[in-house]
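agent> call fold_tool(seq_1)
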Amino acid sequence: MIRSLLLIAALFLISPAVIMAAEAEPAWLTFSGAEGPGKGKVVVLVSGDEEYRSEEALAQLGKILATRHGFECRVLYAIDPDTGAIDPNNQTNIPGLEQLGVADLMVIATRFRNLPDEQMQEIDAYLRRGGPVVGLRTATHAFNIPVDRAFAHYSNGYAGEKREWTDGFGRIVLGEKWISHHGKHGQESTRGLIAPGAADHPILRGIADGAIWGPTDVYGVRLPLPGDSQPLVLGQVLAGMTPDSPPVAGPQNDPLMPIAWTKTYSVEGGPRGRVFTTTMGAATDMLSEGTRRLLVNGCYWAVGLEEAIQADARVDAVGGFQPTPFGFGGSRKGLKPAGLR
């Protein structure tokens, strides 16, 4: 009886600590780097989109970069502050952005986020020091901030007084803002063809012509891309949703739209930073080995490790990777960051 009473008393004493630990559960994931060329480099991967499952895509990319290549990866999410669960529809909260202060690379795959000033300040500070950026898919339209806010100039299609920010983060940093679905969304997939003159670029090392594929459609861009942009991969619109689908006939493939390119950027005269952008990058796109290699190689190049890119380096998925199909309203409900570990 005494032992039973002591056990009950102990449980009452422990319960508050257990509750506090649950509340303190990290809102992001950290994958420590194994051995590899990326050892000592910190990559902060910023997810937050309603459609393409960036929370799953960047968790898997972080695992590959950490386990196969040695990078320390910290994956951030759109979080419901009341539940601690990942909520891609919450456009106003991505905890952990202060970690960009020690980052060697930011990988971003957000869509129309309206983040509070204190969170945007972390992104702005990173870009002002010329930090390298890898942008995926909807990062071309990463932000949508009201005109009366401090960071409104980051918004997709910005047309305000800060002329140097015309068209916002997408155009100025990544090279393009949201333009259009060039292929038929959900009906026409994408095959990546190496752009003329780009075959020897280190990002394409180990990638054969046509090896990049994804069920997401080609995005439209304005040609030519701005500044020192260099197209690496062109997107062939396919008349179907499998890698062996034939290309569609007609103007959709004439000319072909770039789907991956490099460039540099500078914020208001600050240091120049490297950028690799691809309009692919949905979680389902990463079922393709060619697409995974493109993303991994792009990260190497962005941080200045292009000499270390190996054509036969491992880019296979870590753990069981079964991504959720893209589409609005289809994200996994109640999922917390730890569930993607």
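agent> call fold_tool(seq_2)
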Amino acid sequence: MFTPSLLKGKVAIVTGGGTGLGLAIAKRMGELGADVAIGNRNAAHLEQGTADLRHAGLDPLAVQVDVRKPEQVDEMVARVVRHFGRIDILINNAAGNFICRAEDLSPNGWNSVVGIVLNGSFYCSRAVGRHMIARGSGGSIVSILANYVWTGSAGTVHSAAAKAGVMSMTRTLAVEWAPHNVRVNAVAPGPIESPGAAQQLWNTPEAVSRITDAIPLKRWGKPEDVADAVIFLVSDHAGFITGEILTVDGGSWLGKGPFGFV
């Protein structure tokens, strides 16, 4: 169990922090003592997320930002530094996804998802990484992937390709920035109970049942499961871990083998 002061004195940015996984991560970090800034492109989501965090007794900094635009990312980082004085943690959570067969996927659809997931994660990592390197105090970056980056998944060629790129970026930056004590890791969730994802990816009872049957633990994850995995990776408990991808999916990516005992 994490101690209540585990992240006391730390400053964290969570992109896509107004809803879903991002909001759960931001809330968990705040509960453990961190000062939290949430970034979101959608003003309504940002407002609601801020209200939810304040209702939980936290005082977040809200920044409207489109992570596809590096100048907006740079301004977000500057605002957080002005407000809190430093940045110790970055969570690359902003994402876009929808089910679409590859042959039907438009260039705009491809570019939108790749722009948010891959380009946005790089722009944020670069801006925050520069700050961490200049400060000389190290830091931690965690990106949110998906368990299908290894296996592929029909209808997600845009998201799978983008997140696979972020996985490679994670391991590359882990090596490159290790001399600066900047640790770079990722979490790869599987099926998670999330209203936003449900509308886009599994919007029928049949789909939910089929997915549940494929999870060895026979349950869906909760946003808090992912949040706790992130907390571990950004904490001193993971101080000797970098370049790692932590899968949080109840074993669903492992498969059942040829005999079907599971």
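agent> summarizing second result for user.
The chain has one domain: 11-194+222-248. The longest helix spans residues 107-135.
agent> awaiting next instruction.
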